[in-house]
UniProtKB/TrEMBL annotation:
This is HTH lysR-type domain-containing protein. The keyword Cell inner membrane does not apply. The keyword DNA-binding applies. It comes from Iodidimonas gelatinilytica. Keywords: DNA-binding, Transcription, Transcription regulation. GO terms for molecular function: DNA binding; DNA-binding transcription factor activity.
Length: 150
C-alpha cells in the first residue's frame, strides 16, 4: 500500500502547489485523470474533501491544508533518497532551477537546456529568463543570474 500512498500524496502535493489536476499531471508525467483518481482515493481513505473545486479554480480545504503541511517535508525527503540512489548509479534526476538574463537565456541557455534534457530526462529544469536579480534563498534558484543577500 505504501507505494500507492506515496504516489497519491505526490499527486496531492503537486496539485496543491500548481492549482490543477492538469498542471500536476504534466509535472509528474501522468494523465489528469490519474491525478484526479489519486486525489479521490486519498479523500476516500481519509473521509474528507481535500480541495474545493469549481469550474474555474481549486482551493485546499482546511483538511487539505493540514495534510499538505504534514506531508510536504517527508515526501521531499523520500524524493531526495530516490535522487541519491539514482545518483549512486550514475543517473541524474531531480529539479534544477536556473535564472538568467533575457538575452543570455534565449541565445545560450535554451539550446543547452534542450540538449541537456535529452541526455538527462529525469532532471526537470525550471528556466526563469528575465533581467531581474535573483536571490538564492528568496527565489529558490539553484543557478541565479546574479544574487543579492537576503
Amino acid at each position: 500500500m505504501l507505494p500507492h500512498l506515496s504516489t497519491a500524496l505526490h499527486a496531492f502535493v503537486y496539485t496543491a502547489r500548481l492549482g490543477s489536476f492538469a498542471a500536476a499531471a504534466r509535472a509528474i508525467g501522468v494523465s489528469p485523470a490519474a491525478v484526479g483518481q489519486a486525489i479521490r482515493r486519498l479523500e476516500d481513505d481519509y473521509g474528507v474533501k481535500l480541495f474545493t473545486r469549481t469550474t474555474r479554480k481549486m482551493a485546499l480545504t482546511l483538511e487539505g491544508e493540514l495534510l499538505l503541511d504534514r506531508v510536504r517535508q517527508p515526501l521531499a525527503e523520500l524524493e531526495q533518497v530516490g535522487h541519491v540512489i539514482k545518483e549512486s548509479r550514475g543517473i541524474a534526476s531531480g529539479a534544477l532551477r536556473i535564472a538568467a538574463p533575457t538575452e543570455f537565456g534565449r541565445k545560450k541557455l535554451v539550446p543547452l537546456v534542450a540538449d541537456f534534457n535529452k541526455r538527462h530526462p529525469l532532471v526537470t529544469i525550471e528556466l526563469d529568463i528575465s533581467d531581474s536579480i535573483r536571490s538564492f534563498i528568496d527565489d529558490q534558484v539553484d543557478v541565479p543570474s546574479g544574487w543579492q543577500q537576503s
